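Bumping with the actual sequence this time:
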Amino acid sequence: MTVVPPPARAVPRWLRRLDPAVLTACGCIVALLLVGSLYSRSFLSPNYLLQQLQVGSFLAIIATGMMIVVLLGQIDLSVPWAVAVGGMMSTAAAAYGPAGSALAIPFGVLCGLALGLVNGIGVAYLRVPSMIFTLGVDAVAQGLMILRTGGAAPQDMATPAMQVLATGHAIGGVPNAVWVWVVIGAATVFLLNRTTFGRAVYGIGNQERSAYLSGIRSQRVVLIAFMLSGGLSALSGTLLAGYSTKAYQGMGDPYLLPAIAAVVLGGTSIMGGRGSYLGTTAGVILITLLQSILSVMQMSDASRQIIYGVVILSMLLLYGRSPRSGR
C-alpha cells in the first residue's frame, strides 16, 4: 500500500503577489524598530512613532511625485529647489496681507507645477535626457531664489494655515501632515490603478514605443507626471516651511537622495514599468526610521549620505536589473 503524502499548503494568493522588495523593506522596518528599541526605551512608544510618521510625511509627499516619474523610466533631480521654491514663494505670498495668506499654499504649489511644466516640456517634447534637464532646472531655480533674496536668508514667515497643516493634530491625535500624506497616497493609488493615466504610466515605463503605437499620448503623460512631481515637491516645501515657521535656502537639499532611496527600496524599478505605492510607503518608513536611528547614534551627515548611496546601489543590484513587466 502506497502512502500518498498530504499536499503542501498552498501559498496565499495575496502573499504571492507581493513584491520581494516590499517584503524585504517590511522586514528591515521590523529590524530597525528592534534595533531602535535597544538604543531608547521610548523608540516604540506611540507618541514617538507618530512623531516619526509626521517627519516622514514630508519625505513621503516628495517620494510620491518621484515614484510617478521613475515609473516612466525617468528621474527628477530638480526636487531640492522645487521644495525650496514651494516654501519660499508661499511664505513670500503670505507677506501680502490676508489675501496673500489665503493663497500662500496654492501659490507655492503653483510655482512647483510651473517648474514641473518646464521639466516636462524639456523631457517629453525636446527629448532631453531627464537627468540632465531636471538638474539644469534645479540650478536655474536656485539662481532665481538667490536673485530674489539677494543671497540673504528669507525673512517671510509661514502662515497659520501652513503651521496647522504641518504641526497640528486635528483628528484622533494623529498629526495633520500624516493625514495630508494619507489623502495624497489614496489619490495616487486610485490614479495609478484605476485611471487611463495610470495604465499609460506603466505602459510607457515598460515600452514607450509600444505604448505610443497603441495610441497613448506619451508626451502628454510625461508632461503631467513631471508637473505632479514638481507640485508635490512644492507642497512638501510649504509644509516644511510651516513646520519650521519659515522657509530657508537649501531646505530641499536633504530630500533628494532619501526620496530616490525610498522609491527604489520599495521595489519601483529604476528602469520604469514596475512598482507600487505600498512599496514606496514602506520605503519612506524605512528611510525615516533609519534617519532616526542614525541621529540617535549621532552619525554625521556625510556618513548618512554614504549609507543612502550604498542602500540605493544595493537595491539596484538586487532588483534594478530584473526584466520589465507590468503591474
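The C-alpha cells above came from a reply further down the thread. Residues 49-252 form one domain.
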